[in-house]
User: What shape does this take?
Amino acid sequence: MKQSFLAAKTNMNAPADADCINAKLLTQAGFIKKEMAGVYSYLPLGFRVLEKIKKIIVEEMDNVGMQQTLMPALTPLENWKKTGRDNVDIAYRPTENTVLGFSHEEIVTPLIKEIMRSYKDFPKCLYQIQTKFRNEARAKSGLLRGREFIMKDAYSFHTSEEDFKQYYDKVAEAYFRVYERCGLESYKIEASGGIMSGEEKISHEYSVVTKAGEDTMVFCKKCGFAQNIEISKKRKGDDCPNCKNSLNEEKCIEVGNIFDLGSKYSDAFGFHFTDTDGKQKPVHMGCYGIGVSRLMGTIVEASHDENGIIWPQTVAPFQLHILSLRENEKAEEITSNLEEDGFEILYDDRNESPGKKFADSDLLGIPLRVVVSKRMLEKGCVELRNRKTGETQEIPTRELQKYISTYFMPIKK
Amino acid sequence: MKQSFLAAKTNMNAPADADCINAKLLTQAGFIKKEMAGVYSYLPLGFRVLEKIKKIIVEEMDNVGMQQTLMPALTPLENWKKTGRDNVDIAYRPTENTVLGFSHEEIVTPLIKEIMRSYKDFPKCLYQIQTKFRNEARAKSGLLRGREFIMKDAYSFHTSEEDFKQYYDKVAEAYFRVYERCGLESYKIEASGGIMSGEEKISHEYSVVTKAGEDTMVFCKKCGFAQNIEISKKRKGDDCPNCKNSLNEEKCIEVGNIFDLGSKYSDAFGFHFTDTDGKQKPVHMGCYGIGVSRLMGTIVEASHDENGIIWPQTVAPFQLHILSLRENEKAEEITSNLEEDGFEILYDDRNESPGKKFADSDLLGIPLRVVVSKRMLEKGCVELRNRKTGETQEIPTRELQKYISTYFMPIKK
Assistant: This one.
């Protein structure tokens, strides 16, 4: 895609009201625009990143046998009365009898109840990637705490606690893979169920270490043990309870959570199943959330430098950023050849100074930058720069495709 | 996918409150579930159809140079005050200062204003596939008139009316391709701009002939001329004004619309551009809508019989429906071979009677049905049936892949 065509403009000045790195950099680089507190639009660059993240999540959720659905945001109040969540502070109420879904247990449970009757129908897990609304008193931190945000929420249904636990562990592993594929190092932390399932049930949060975190965790770099600092203080131990290694304390961002719901919601909707012995028994539920837009913000918090964003390959809006320094003819030829090979390219064809083009490229954070200049072309080369390492190489133009292929696979087709 | 695993149950009885074919059949076949008047959940089968329709739309919109974005549903009231649409009847108001977007001119115009300043930045067109909310007094007709629905809305920005008109014609052609690829025969009808752009501006509706239509149009089968019956009555002509052929009068469903917005919205937000002569001039806008979920309902209205849905190949949830009549071993072998070839298959492995399996298959409406039975296998064959034509053939099992490939291409990869 030609940069002159792209609907995005960079801005070297940070927005006045940006209270964190992700809001600042994503706005300056033209990925998002703030519409009101906690509510953002995704411009083409931001939309492309969202789609990449969604694709990773869809692949990993499908892989553990979840089935994708789409439930509405506008939901009947009567459903929420059945679980006592009709007067939750954060719920938007567009009319007297409706609630904008802040979670979907109240919708998915009666929905699946119509489908699953016998033990033979179990287990099943439905998920969706859908827009949630929460009237947060203080929306803040860019994409980290929004009033409207994109969430992957999944709900599993089981005939026994044992079956649930097995499935919970499978999802727990899939969550690690999602974050790893998004370029994040995540830790699984024991937590309490809170508003979703009650204090006594098991639940875990996934957290990523970054300075911008609202929470604090202690974790062990050796064995991966991690714990919320509040719980750790109660435990009164300074070392890792598993491997006795010393623990690190860092700010962190929660990027997902998984819950044992027990039969709280199935009981509320009278959802039972007929077991092998012909008896009616309670359905055991689990739920599994990932903040999709929050994940985008977290990636920026975890991966940037003073010049801009550093996108991990897997979620970058484009793979290559080709900069023409007044050599548009040759740069276009290189671009279209690589596009034919299936690489995703942003091509800076703009009539801007080299300095402006370099600064914009750093700000946008595309993994590999290719500079096409007179000086390089005279040597039969282009300059290739790795945004993350800063490493720069002169590559013979005819070997560019081969070199880039060692760095990543073509994405299209 | 195994049908025993799929989260869907068919129901031979129509829902008591279904007032139309699409609500009836899609509910009975397990594609959607009504959550409240005008609000539906999409179960895995329905979600798959939605995704296919979205993919067609995305391809055609990208093809005319639109760029995909995502704007929020929750929007600030102040934006709507600027255009005088803050007190529109159909607007949900979740809080005193917010509106749930029923259209997005009020969001996209100030957004793009930050990006486009000079004539060099024009033209551009942004689109999104996003959830709209309209508090319809009478939500009805299943997916045809919802309170929450999925829409593709696009907004183009131009330096002149001439440039706008050229682009408008390009989009108009792309719209025909979208409907054609969805298996629908559509007509482009002159209409008035109404709430979007005012009575004096040009606009067109795209309509599909079906009995369930709320509107009535007259159209010419020979040259494609079509007109709303009200306008036609004013014209007082019984024959096609282009080719003098006789006109047909039929009920129809509106499946899209395109509008000349002039500078109504750009004026409201003070969005001007600097022209070649250095002067500030008004920006000319167009907008282009397709009801995505409505399109799904329309396809069912246009393509069904007394036994169920007949999905066009391009939007079917699966390409093949393989039915095992107590021959699961062989049926599974055939299924996994064809899945490896890249075909999308729903495999009915359930322990149900042949009659139940046949009836469900007709209801679901997957384009090709393959029956694996003892009688056929003894002849080295399977039975292949075309859902649309009813044509049944005995095909040697080893030639099945070849035969199906002549019918459609593998979808995956």
